[in-house]
C-alpha cells in the first residue's frame, strides 16, 4: 500500500524532482557547513576575481528557508507543466541554459551599472532560483493555450504580459 507522499513523488516529473532535491541538498549543506558567501554572484567576484563558477552556484543557493520554499513552490508549479509538455531532457537543458544566461546578464548589467554610476554596483550580490523561474514563467506564458492568465487568482492579464506583471507585483 502506497502513501500519499509516495504517490506525490511518483507524479513529479524527473527534471523537476532533480532540481528541487538539488536546491534542498545545497541549502542543507550550506546551513550546516556554511559557504553561502562562496556561492553568491556579483560582478566583482566573476569579473575581477574570475570566480566564474558563481554563475552556476548562485542559482542553486538560497539565503533562507522561506527563500527556498517560495522559489521551489513556484518552480514546481511552472516546471511541472512545461516538463510534461516538452519532456525532461529538454527542460533539463533549458534550465541549464537559463542559469547561464541569467548569470551572465546579471554580471553584465551590474558591471555596466558600476561603470555608469559607481563601483558599489560591482559588489551587489544575489542568489536563488528566481531568474530561472522568471525565464520559465516567460516561456510558459508564450506556450500555454489560453488568452489570459490569473495572477494570484485576483486579476486576469493577457498571457503575453503575464510574466512582466507578475515580476512587477512580486518586486
In total, how many beta strands? 2
Beta-strand fraction estimate: under 5%
Reported for the largest beta sheet, the result is: 2 strands, antiparallel
Query: Helical percent range?
Result: 55-70%
- The overall pLDDT, averaged over residues, is 92
> Low-confidence segments, ≥5 residues, pLDDT <50?
none
Give the end-to-end Cα distance, rounded to a whole number of Å: 44 Å
Strand order of the largest sheet: 1-2
Characterize this entry briefly.
With 171 residues, the protein is mainly α. It is 68% helix and 5% strand.
Which tags fit this structure?
mainly alpha, two-stranded antiparallel ribbon, about 170 residues, about 5% strand
Would you kindly provide a written description of the structure presented here, covering whatever features stand out?
Strands 1-2 form a two-stranded antiparallel sheet. β1 and β2 form a beta hairpin. It has 8 helices and 2 strands. It is mainly alpha-helical and 171 residues long. The mean pLDDT is 92. 27% of the residues are buried.
Question: Topology, please?
Answer:
Layout: H1 4-11, H2 14-33, H3 43-48, H4 54-60, H5 65-86, H6 88-117, H7 130-143, E1 148-151, E2 155-158, H8 162-170
Antiparallel strand pairs: 1-2
Helix pairs in contact: 2-5, 4-6, 5-6, 5-7, 6-7, 7-8
Amino acid at each position: 500500500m502506497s502513501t500519499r507522499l509516495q504517490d506525490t513523488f511518483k507524479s513529479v516529473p524527473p527534471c523537476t524532482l532533480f532540481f528541487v532535491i538539488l536546491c534542498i541538498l545545497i541549502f542543507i549543506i550550506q546551513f550546516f557547513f556554511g559557504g553561502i558567501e562562496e556561492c553568491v554572484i556579483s560582478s566583482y567576484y566573476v569579473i575581477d576575481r574570475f570566480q566564474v563558477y558563481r554563475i552556476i552556484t548562485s542559482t542553486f543557493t538560497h539565503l533562507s528557508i522561506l527563500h527556498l520554499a517560495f522559489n521551489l513552490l513556484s518552480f514546481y508549479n511552472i516546471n511541472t507543466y512545461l516538463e510534461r509538455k516538452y519532456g525532461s531532457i529538454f527542460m533539463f537543458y533549458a534550465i541549464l541554459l537559463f542559469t547561464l544566461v541569467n548569470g551572465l546578464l546579471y554580471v553584465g548589467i551590474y558591471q555596466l551599472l558600476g561603470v555608469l554610476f559607481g563601483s558599489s554596483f560591482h559588489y551587489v550580490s544575489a542568489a536563488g532560483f528566481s531568474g530561472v523561474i522568471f525565464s520559465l514563467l516567460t516561456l510558459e506564458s508564450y506556450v500555454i493555450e489560453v488568452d489570459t492568465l490569473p495572477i494570484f487568482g485576483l486579476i486576469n492579464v493577457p498571457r503575453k504580459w503575464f510574466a512582466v506583471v507578475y515580476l512587477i507585483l512580486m518586486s
